[in-house]
């Protein structure tokens, strides 16, 4: 049954000066809030190795942000901003980034009503010769509600990954109210980012330096990765009065069979770095149910966790996935999720969450509330009264689920 939740109940006052517009000079000097057994305390992020439980499994999202924001210009002079969301042709990220002349993406297009059927030229006011040599053009293929399919074509034989590096800009969140700058190329990316595909950073990971990663590993924590490519849906506000009216976008992810097997074995705390890691890990249970009932993994729908009671154990569900992968000679699970985590959700895998502070009336704040059994106001009141910085470049928290 879809939960009847009014988004207005998850509102709080966030002054503009509490939104971190830029990252701190040192990643690990951000503040760190700890929430455990209903109590809240303040730390510095470099102390996180002391707080992570020994012999736990710590899971990071190693997706890499791509410079997916492109600016074009019509012959009339009108500017059209195109934000690449996900590949259409070819449909695989690794294939589309390797294309050398033409490809199609699902995009969010600014000023799309002013773009008819003309072919757009890349906006290049400084006449950068490297940009000019590519002769990048965009054609509108079709519109589909909030998104459009756009075909890009270019010269010179460069792979599309390099085209984006030359022509694109880092898609920093719109609530920063500024253009991307040189500092964002480095700092709006985790140290362990590996696989290109996200249009938003998994920001909980921005605080980690190699010092913390080494110290956590030395503590005996098993450090693992998943890869969920973060879509622009993470920026979309909830416009409906009740959460049932909000639509989650599909995000593809990859999880190694060895990690699924390790979690299925049980007996160890699972620490998720970021809400994207939580959504990935908690989706595994419902993918396992699909394997049990239908014989193969399927995308997780937005409301699947709430549609009925599930009696399978977590071990049974995860074992069904590994059995499927074994039977098909696969080492990785590749699937997608639209899962939404709201109060009433039953967590089956994640015990501890490292995360930043999220926008009022957002799906991410609903996830936090679900994780801490509705205690989010205590956490956010503490952060606001103790000068914590908010949102993507802001401070962090480590939350322990009772």
Radius of gyration (CA) equals 21 Å
Q: How much beta, percentage-wise? A: 15-25%
* Biggest β-sheet strands, sense, barrel: 9 strands, mixed
- CATH C-level of the largest domain: Alpha Beta
Question: What does this 3D model show about the protein?
Answer:
The chain contains eleven helices and 17 strands. It is α/β, with parallel strands linked by helices and 402 residues long. The protein folds into two domains: 7-65 and 187-400, QueA-like (3-Layer(aba) Sandwich), CATH 3.40.1780; 69-168, no CATH class. Helix 7 (257-265) runs antiparallel to helix 9 (314-327) and helix 8 packs across helix 9 (314-327). The longest helix has 20 residues, at 275-294. The chain is globular and about 60 Å long.
Short summary:
It contains eleven helices and 17 strands.
List keywords for this structure.
402 residues, alpha/beta, QueA-like, 9-stranded mixed sheet, globular
Layout of SSEs?
Elements lengths: L30 E6 L2 E6 L3 H4 L5 E5 L1 E3 L3 E5 L5 E11 L3 H6 L3 E8 L10 E3 L6 H6 L2 E8 L2 E7 L6 H8 L14 H6 L7 E4 L11 H9 L3 E7 L22 E6 H9 L4 E4 L1 H20 L19 H14 L4 E6 L14 E5 L6 H9 L4 H10 L10 E5 L2
Parallel strand pairs: 1-17, 3-12, 3-14, 4-11, 14-16
Antiparallel strand pairs: 1-2, 5-6, 5-8, 6-7, 7-10, 8-9, 9-10, 12-13, 13-15, 16-17
